[in-house]
Amino acid sequence: MALVRSGDVELDCERTGSGPPLLLIMGMSGTALHWGEPFLELLREDFEVIVYDHRGVGASTPLEGPITIPQLAEDASRLLSALGLDSAHVLGISMGGMVAQELALAHPEQVRTLALGCTWAGGPTATQRNPEVLQRLTEAMLSGDRERALRAGWEAIVSPAMAADEAAYAAFKRIAAQRAVAVPVIMAQLQAGMALDTADRLGQLAMPTLVIHGTEDEMLDVANGRLIASRVPGSRLEIFDGIGHMFFWELPERSAELIREHTAVHA
What we know:
Blueprint: E1 2-6, E2 9-17, E3 21-25, H1 37-44, E4 48-52, H2 69-82, E5 88-93, H3 95-106, E6 111-117, H4 131-142, H5 146-157, H6 160-163, H7 166-178, H8 183-194, E7 209-214, H9 222-231, E8 236-240, H10 247-250, H11 252-264
Helix pairs in contact: 1-11, 2-3, 4-5
């Protein structure tokens, strides 16, 4: 990873693989490591894969005060420019999917194709987060017990079947140990996501758009994926039955295949 100046911040960024550029935008509390090597390795066969850490995460510029999704979208836009790229294919998941929506709306010329995974559009038409899940996660994060917080987070982002996979959980813990995200940053990201409302603007999107969502997503209900797809003209919706929030951890091969198929329409 290397620091790249993006406007008034520096973002820790990595470019690997070869092919057309694919910008990956991570979600709340995540780092570039959370994409997982199985998924990244598959993408590197066909793309120059660009991953980065949001401001406040890892070696990127520390977060000072609140943040908004449009601000994070500007970070992504400026990062592409700083890397010498006029445009790229874009995949955003969870909060990163919210950032990707704002990026595509504000700078459509920079987005060749758009893929939105396990995300929402916010506003009054969105299906709100399960309050019980939010309470469980918040209590775990504020408990001061790191193991409790990690386990609660893990159980919320994967299906019950994968949550019981101790080998997968061990991999998740190793990533968390390498690059922890501070609780104040996570809470600021949560507030930013809650303030999002793109639903009435999604009809402006003209680039090929793919929406992916799992039916067992506890963080953001699958109804949100269906809503986004219904608002974006000509979009493609892929529903993963029995799969949780981090669909690319549970189904890396199928997820990478969908991205390849989706971006091929641009080529």
